[in-house]
Model the fold of this input.
Amino acid sequence: MSAHPKFCPRCSIGRIRRKRLPYVMVVEDQLVNIPRFPALVCDVCHAYMFDPVALSRLEASLSARPRPVKTPRARRAAPLAPAATDKPLESF
Done:
């Protein structure tokens, strides 16, 4: 399959059109949302794939940026509530 097919490889009927769709991914525990990312969409079955050229450019730009150094943080225990304020689960 070529990078930009003319007809849909899924339904074999629809034509592939260029559109912009939301692209969401997680990078280093951070949610990244790109609202108008280039995609190839079938006009009949609406199957889509994100533009491989745009994906490779995005991957290259994300891998080129310096990664922050994470320092370990001490975990704190949650404060204990007094026994008088505890309620059984049935009371909720």
The mean pLDDT is 81.
